[in-house]
Amino acid sequence: MRISVIGCGYLGAVHAACMAKLGHDVVGIDVDHGKVARLSEGKAPFYEPELDALLTELEESGRLSFTTGMEAAGGCEVHFICVGTPQKRGENAADLRFVDAAVAELAGFLSPGDVVAGKSTVPVGTAERLAEVIAARQPAAALLWNPEFLREGHAVDDTLRPDRFVYGVPDGNEDHPAVAVLDEVYRTALSAGTLRLIMDYPTAELVKTAANSFLATKISFINAMAEVCEATGADVTRLADAIGMDERIGRKFLNAGIGFGGGCLPKDIRAFMARAGELGADQALTFLREVDAINMRRRTRVVELTRELCGGILLGQRIAVLGAAFKPESDDVRDSPALSAAAQLQLQGAVVTVTDPQALDNAAKRFPELPMEPDLETALTRADAVLLLTEWKLYRELDPYSTKSLVSSARVLDGRNVLDPAKWRAAGWTYRGLGRP
Ligand code: UGA
């Protein structure tokens, strides 16, 4: 099929590449000239495992191109809306400017029978409004809401082999002709047995926000337990292992630590609260305010623990911060808990050095005053305390003995609870985890 993908960020670039991998003819459209130029050379504009290889492979095939001109969408049969919906400045609500602009411009290039599939995370009620914008320009085109559940760091695999597809169709009509069109796009995964659920627009929009809210709640739940563990001397990782064995609870997303960040969970729960307020259902989501508050407290806790670890004073202490990305296998630093803690430590007088295998360029753009050091050994050299804040494999596998020979004082704060405390203590380190004795 001929497909256009509008918005080539973390979601759209991967989606475009994966659709071409499935055999479709794809054009990715983005207003950012730099991004389009890089993608056109077969290079990913951000770090995502497997994406560079996929882009290089597809460059040869001629099935994938990128442009800044929306007119390239004319002649495509399916159009995916993948632009960002960031948090509005100074407000909790989502900023829909990019979605609105993309759909308004695209509408002028639609032909009868075209299907527009919305993937951006939007407040409930947006699809219905956008469907009217489309109908006003091209009444014979259809809008489906087709939320995306990919995780950064696993984006290619999640797109090619998703858990499920969700199609939001007007009035939840399963026989809507656009359903067959989207089925054709996703034929490979559907024939491999991936389930698809058809529902109305508001339900499809809510599936996405509800899923992210649940994940955020699960993380904040275990971080709240970490706070209680800290007050009682209990170990939150053992607690998570034990409760996670109950299938109804499950062990995934029960890793206590410095908390969640990124371009999705934090802003999505806030936008959800804002939207519920507009709908008069704010009471239903007041718990998300607590989820957010617990999460933000973790960042302060890291600073407090570091101060304790350094004998009560941060001033002049050399702190090696391992990790800048909001999670491993990504160079995304949006609302990164690691960088937020690093910046707070620096403000309180610590001499901070941040290292990360992929995210330092992005980190330097957001926090130009924070010293960055690409070389791990150099970052560790003469440190008074080491903070593991993003659990990249190379940090999880650090050898406590050789690391000790580099630092000034063998003190480690394991912000993700991924190191073996016994091993580090045996090597002579003062070890602190979050919610661990
Ligand atoms: C999240 C969802 O997991 C995806 O399903 C969704 O599609 C995506 O948002 C989106 O809305 O686009 P992502 O932001 O890539 O994906 O990251 P996650 O893997 O969910 O991690 C989010 C944060 O939670 C990270 O900072 C991570 O370190 C933290 N986390 C995760 C924990 O602190 N503890 C855990 O147990 C798990």
Q: What can be said about this structure in brief?
A:
With 437 residues, the chain is α/β, with parallel strands linked by helices. It folds into two domains: 2-199, NAD(P)-binding Rossmann-like Domain (Rossmann fold, 3-Layer(aba) Sandwich), CATH 3.40.50.720; 200-437, 3-Layer(aba) Sandwich (Rossmann fold), CATH 3.40.50.720.
Question: How does this structure look, described?
Answer:
α9 (201-232) crosses α11, α9 (201-232) runs parallel beside α12 (286-309) and α11 (265-278) runs antiparallel to α12. The chain is of the alpha/beta class and 437 residues long. It has two domains: 2-199, NAD(P)-binding Rossmann-like Domain (Rossmann fold, 3-Layer(aba) Sandwich), CATH 3.40.50.720; 200-437, Rossmann fold. Strands 3-2-1-4-5-6 form a six-stranded parallel beta sheet, with helices on both faces. Strands 10-9-11-12-13 form a five-stranded parallel beta sheet. α18 links the parallel β12 and β13 (430-433). The model has no long low-confidence stretch (mean pLDDT 97). The protein is built from 18 helices and 13 strands. The protein binds uridine-5'-diphosphate-glucuronic acid (UGA). The site of uridine-5'-diphosphate-glucuronic acid has 22 residues, from α9 and α11.
